[in-house]
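Contributing new complexes? Match this layout with adenosine-5'-diphosphate.
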Amino acid sequence: MTYIYKQYINGEWVEASNGGTWEVINPATEEVVQTVPYGTADDANAAIEAAARAFPEWANQTAYKRAAILKKASDIMRSRLDELARTTTLECGKPLSQSRGEWFTAADLFEWFAEECKRVYGRTIPSRVPRKRMTVIKQPIGVVGVITAWNFPAYNTARAWAAALAAGCTVVAKPAEDTPLTAMEMTNILVEAGIPTGVMNLINGEPAPIGQAMLDHPDCRKISFTGSTEVGRILMEGSARTFTRLGLELGGNAPVIVFPDADIARVAKGAVSTKYWNAGQACTGPQRFMVQESALQQFIDTVVPAVEALKVGNGLESDVAVGPIINERQRGRIESLVMEGVAHGATVLTGGSRPAGMDKGFFYQPTVVTNVALDQRLYHEEIFGPVMPITTFNDVDEAIYMANQTPYGLAAYVWTNDLNTAIKAYEGLEFGLVGVNEWYPQATEAPFVGWKASGLGAEAGAEGLEDYLETKLVSIGNIR
Ligand code: ADP
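Output block (do not edit by hand):
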């Protein structure tokens, strides 16, 4: 299939209005994959206006008609997983199997929201006043600006686009500058599936002016944002002026609490697969490993050789487990976190540097660190890289206390075979996604929610659709 790698505004593939371009870099080779348009606020405004014109017809379309287009897009994705995965790996570096899995889930999201939008029910409320009827209906919010991150370029985008489009909203999407190609291919697929003119728009360009344009334009009614807590804060401050609705999926600093009654060797092996998935660049990814003191040595003894066995390299190679970091800036940040931690007494058990002999590509060795002081950035900041800091605790109360000592509240993990410990832990943890004896507390059909500084609102699941709808009370009085 031949894809077009441009902006898509008002049903046309276009260059940037200011002629700007951007080179998409393969983080495994540092070579240019594609040159794409790189626009600014003017492109955002043109796209918002196209989306606003398309909104009434799309919103009033039956859910069944919208669903048919989204389902068709989902079928196309499933039929082309290999070629789509290749593009995602080329621009963000993750192993091909992980890119394929991401596109598979993207297809699931389009299919599931296509089904779910047929069930946007209202309700009637019995009135306390005679000759009056009250009905609650749900209507799509309007034009939604969708700003997404580079770490899951297919999943992040599909989660927001599918829900918004299914709800009857029209979309102006801005992918992350490092990974626009995946979003462009997804747009090609929606066009092929028959999305009407103006319903889906894709822009690519300068983040701050585009975000500001989305906030300022009165027709852009919601911004769905996946990215850093800092940018989430900028959008919240902006929306305090404009009342633009916000859906925010921000950073995390996930605790993993390992109790000694768990099968420690099994947990340690699972910890390695999960921690280094996507080179640790996942907001739900396990970060602060808290192992009960009596289990620490066994945990370390299993983790370290398993980490050393992970092959680092270009995600296109079949046996590679850990790809590169997305860009030089992110790798530099990870390096400084580790160096600073070591300067304050942390011990590197394995890794802790760039892999030897790999001069090209933004690689960083899978790393395990102990003796991390709790005031270190390595412990309390989101690492977003292949580094596992391990600390210890004594009892369940201390573990819950330590786990909650963070502004973040996205994912948390608990490993125990004791039911009382599990219940006490999951009830006490101030996080939106808690995995008890599992590493994947998320699903297309379940809400993805961040507490505290990790987010606002929900994506995925029935709650995810709800967040693209407004509630309206229709009250009919004086009925004769
Ligand atoms: P990261 O540090 O992980 O790249 P960001 O929050 O900077 O996370 O990026 C997530 C998304 O937010 C990207 O699409 C990026 O272009 C966009 N972005 C960055 N700064 C702004 C901003 N000021 N306003 C709106 N979007 C922004």
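Reviewers usually confirm one structural detail per submission. For this one: The chain has 15 helices and 24 strands.
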